[in-house]
Amino acid sequence: MDKELAVIGTIQSEIKDIASAPKMEDEAGAVRARIIMDPAYAEGLDGLEPGAALEIFTWFHKSDRSVLKVHPRGIKERPLRGVFATRSPARPNPIGLHRVTLVAIEAPLTLVVEPLEAIDGTPVIDIKPKPKGR
């Protein structure tokens, strides 16, 4: 493979550590956050408008890549399951999928989105409009 994964932006959030992050965007604790875009990808934002439903793909850079089984939602009373049957950020290639609403565009390179459960400093690797009806 001759292509590399590019970080197109970075999340700015009040969530500062894994322990305090909600497990999914619809849980209590997911917050309004900012995505600070790398200027090299500014043209890719053309056509985005506040109110748009987006899917944000992130690289969970602080995730444990050696884990293959987890207790769903971190509840020890639940039986262990394979990470590919859960939304755990612990996995061999820890890519996060976040369904958010674009609240505002601040200046040309800052997207304000909600709700977002990723921690401060998380790299963003892609942004896609959410398909209608899903």
Architecture overview:
There is one protein chain. The chain has 134 residues and is mainly beta. It is 0% helix and 36% strand. The chain is built from no helices and eight strands. The protein has strands spanning 9-12, 31-37, 53-59, 69-70, 81-82, 95-106, 110-116, 123-129. The strands form two sheets. The protein has a six-stranded antiparallel barrel with strand order 1-2-7-6-3-8. The model has no long low-confidence stretch (mean pLDDT 89).
The H-level CATH homologous superfamily, spelled out, is: YaeB-like
Gross CATH architecture: Beta Barrel
Order of helices and strands: EEEEEEEE
List the total number of helices: 0
Q: Helical residue percent?
A: under 10%
Strand content: 35-45%
Strand order of the largest sheet: 1-2-7-6-3-8
Secondary structure category: mainly beta
Tell me the count of domains.
1
Count of strand segments: 8
State the end-to-end CA separation: 32 Å
Describe the global form. globular
* Nearest-integer average pLDDT: 89
Report the CATH C-level class. Answer: Mainly Beta
SSE layout:
Blueprint lengths: L8 E4 L18 E7 L15 E7 L9 E2 L10 E2 L12 E12 L3 E7 L6 E7 L5
Antiparallel strand pairs: 1-2, 1-8, 2-7, 3-6, 3-8, 4-5, 6-7
For this entry, give a set of tags.
single chain; 134 residues; two-stranded antiparallel ribbon; mainly beta
What would you say about this model in short?
By secondary structure, the protein is mainly beta. Helices cover 0% and strands 36% of the residues. The protein has one domain (9-129): Elongation Factor Tu (Ef-tu), domain 3 (Beta Barrel), CATH 2.40.30.70.
